[in-house]
Design brief:
This protein has about 375 residues and is an alpha+beta fold. It contains 6 helices and 17 strands. The chain folds into 3 domains: about 5-120 and about 350-380, no CATH class; about 120-135 and about 270-345, Tick-borne Encephalitis virus Glycoprotein, domain 1 (Sandwich); about 140-270, no CATH class. The chain has helices spanning about 5-20, 25-45, 50-55, 75-90, 100-120, 350-380, and strands at about 60-65, 70, 120-130, 135-150, 160, 180-185, 190-195, 210-215, 225-235, 240-245, 250-255, 260-285, 290-305, 305-315, 320, 325-330, 340-345. The radius of gyration is 29 Å and the shape is globular.
Length: about 375
């Protein structure tokens, strides 16, 4: 049996480093990134922005025809990042090549920021009626089942995530006296009226006259309506079959042991480390029309008792604790009360492009200064 020595390992490691640092590999990977960009952009029209982003721009593997694995954008970016690191290892670390080294470091920082943005960023919306506060944003792509006790103020909500709403699972919590057993789930559903009311299985509410039918995913995410059919157990005379869906006009409320429970299928809530209260919403219209020219929200930010006033407009977002709140839209309700709609983004890698750009700019200036210096030095030597 051959013994692998330390020099052998070093030799193998250097071969791998030289392979990853090849300019040919970088060029091939860069070409593949361009293919992904064009492919994903075309797919956005058919599959929608979010689905295309998940399939092409936030994945390690792209499945061609659901069977052939191809490297995704994250994998291709990782290859370029590792190649840059290997190039830095092989680089001649001297003052003469300082500019080139700094440029490579800046490019690596830029790629690292892109990876953090793709993997750890969160986006959502915040709808705030006048005078009310919100300390959460709503996820535009995922839902959750929230169970709230209406006649017990202060009792926290019980939340079941979308990943838990699988058919055949059982949803339990120590604070709930009953069990929820999903029997049908769809991320986008059509509500179909039955020819005649159902009596089998002890149905309640919507489940008596309607059934959920899975529908094709709509590329416009806001048009998709999730739905859930479940069987309630250990709830006494309220046992039976129920159907709920997003934005139900009549909420599903059940009474068990004297407590009223509100079951709501809603966009997933992501808590923020602060709350935002809408003081006033201002809308400016084009003269002689009802089309908005600009709108802004006068808000009060509350960070655990620390209050301050802020103004969020179309071109002036609010940035705080890593979150950016943009003025996205508005919604008119009864009585001409206008609620503001804010887009909320938490971008972990937000500062990396600025840092990388600064590093590369410094590297280019140093590189140009060095080239100019050595050119004059060579000319003076020639004379």
């Amino acid at each position: 049996m051959k013994t692998i020595t330390v020099p052998d390992l070093k030799t193998a490691a250097m071969k791998c480093i030289r392979l990853m640092a090849q300019a040919r590999l970088f060029a091939i990977t860069l070409l593949w990134l361009m293919v992904i960009l064009v492919w994903g952009t075309i797919a956005e029209k058919a599959d929608g922005l979010y689905a295309a982003q998940q399939q092409f721009f936030s994945s390690y593997i792209i499945w061609l025809w659901y069977s052939v694995p191809l490297p995704g954008l994250l994998t291709a970016t990782a290859v370029i990042f590792i190649g840059l690191m290997c190039r830095l290892i092989l680089e001649r670390w001297s003052f003469k090549y300082l500019g080139t080294i700094i440029i490579h470091i800046g490019a690596a920082v830029l790629l690292l920021g892109g990876f953090l943005t793709a993997r750890f960023s969160h986006e959502g919306t915040m709808l705030i009626p006048p005078g009310e506060s919100r300390n959460y944003m709503e996820d535009d792509q995922h839902v959750e089942l929230a169970v709230t006790v209406l006649n017990a103020p202060g009792q926290p909500e019980t939340i079941f995530s979308e990943a838990q709403l699988n058919v055949g699972s059982t949803l339990t919590d120590p604070s709930l006296p009953f069990i929820i057993a999903p029997t049908a789930w769809c991320s986008n559903c059509d509500l179909v009226r039955l020819p005649q009311p159902v009596t089998e299985g002890n149905p309640h509410g919507v489940a008596i006259n309607f059934v959920l039918k899975p529908a094709a995913h709509d590329p416009a995410e806001e048009q998709n309506r999730a739905g859930l059919t479940f069987r309630l157990q250990h709830a006494g005379d309220r046992d039976g079959l129920y159907t709920i869906f997003q934005n139900m006009p009549i909420p599903e409320i059940i009474t068990v042991a004297g407590k009223k429970y509100f079951l709501d299928l809603r966009p997933a809530h992501m808590l923020l480390p602060f709350s935002v209260q809408l003081l006033h919403f201002q809308e400016d219209l084009y003269p002689g029309t009802d089309k908005p020219r600009a709108f802004q929200s006068d808000v009060m930010v509350n960070d655990h008792g620390i209050l301050w006033h802020s103004l969020i407009s179309m071109n002036e977002p609010l940035r705080y604790k890593g979150y950016t709140l943009y003025q996205s839209s508005f919604m008119e309700s009864t009585g001409r009360q206008t609620a503001t709609v804010l887009a909320v983004v938490k971008n972990t890698g937000r500062l990396f492009p600025y840092l990388a750009g600064t590093i590369m700019a410094i590297g280019m200036l140093i590189h140009l200064a060095q080239r100019l210096f050595w050119r004059r030095h060579d000319e003076s030597t020639a004379l």
